[in-house]
Amino acid sequence: MRPLFISPSRQTVLRPLSTSRSVLVIKLGALGDIMQSLDAFHAIRAHHPVDRLILMTTQPFAAFGAAMPWFDAIWVDSRPKAWQLAAWVALAARLRREPLSRVYDLQSNQRTSLYFRLLAGPRRPDWSGAVAGCSHPRPDFLSLSGHNRDRLLAHVASAGVPLIGPADVTWLDSPIDHFGLPERFVVMVPGCSPHRLYKRWPASHYADLACRLERRGIAAVLIGTRADREAIAEIRALAPTVIDLAGRTNLLEVAGIARAALGAIGNDTGPIFITAAVGAPTLMLMSHHTIAERMAPLGPAVLWLQRQSLSDLTVDEVEATLSLRDVGVPIREPAFPKDQR
φ and ψ at 110, to 5 degrees? Predict the structure, then answer.
């Protein structure tokens, strides 16, 4: 049964359960990190089949969390400032009012360590995380190699949660007929966090690639947010036939579009993790700030290219690497190109 997100300001009770126990899972963001947590969410749900499972996240991901099949309630963390005493009192009251038997702190940062302290006392639930004094300390991630997904699975396994394999992502979909997209198109995600512009492949390069695809009878569909408007405006000026859906899609619609696309290409940014997860042949473009072995998106057909500076990555290289469903380029399994080992 899918949970219903009602209000960011209060607890949402969604269905009667056969137990009075609740389990809290904390994952505040960002989108790529949440996508890498899906297998851990899946394992936690299986380990707590009758408990009320609550996801605490931030406002941008509340509706997305509510669409997931694992959670019975969504709590929005408003991230109160130190001086917002009333908000802290309300948060402490909500945490203490809920009959929590366990907390899986998959965020494990300074803020969530404060939440651990808000639950101090004889009724403090089991806590799986990195904070000193918790009942189930996670492994030291600095000592672990491998992907972030595997680190999170090691985290929940350290709290006794059996690992049960990949999460089902069939829920990650939405009708897209209202967008009127052509039959043959590639998704482009040319933006990223406005505070990390070094993660962006130049907009002029995306425009060049869009023009090359157009000559092959393939449209380019741009996905992004308002923060990406400047880059997208530059692409549209150089490649006027692109289809601009920036600011018009929710995350489930991004998944639906990716399922219909020939492939996807983008920077190290959240929607690319969605395109990869739902099976679209996906190419991520990475600067040296991204550790590919740990942070690359996961999916059946994922590739990446990485350079010290993304401005050094040519359109020829990207076009040669881009793997699409039906244009004669084989879909390869995730691999490390030789020059990136």
Answer: -65, -35
What does the alpha-carbon distance between residue 39 and residue 256 come to, in Å, rounded to a whole number?
Answer: 20
The DSSP bridge partners found for residue 53 are 23
Residue of 145 and 335 predicted with greater confidence: 145
Per-residue confidence (pLDDT) for residue 141, from 0 to 100: 82
For residue 66, what are the CA distances in angstroms to 8, 11, 53, 224?
Answer: 12, 13, 12, 21
Question: In terms of Cα–Cα distance, which of 171, 169, 202, 170 is closest to 188?
Answer: 202
Residue 340's pLDDT is what?
Answer: 38
Residue 250 to residues 2, 253, 257, Cα–Cα distance (Å): 17, 5, 11
CA 36 to CA 53: how far, in whole Å? Answer: 19
CATH numbers and ranges of domains, the chain: 22-157 (3.40.50.2000), 177-340 (3.40.50.2000)
If pLDDT is split at 50, 70 and 90, which confidence band does 160 have?
Answer: very high
- Residue 75: strand pairing partners: 56
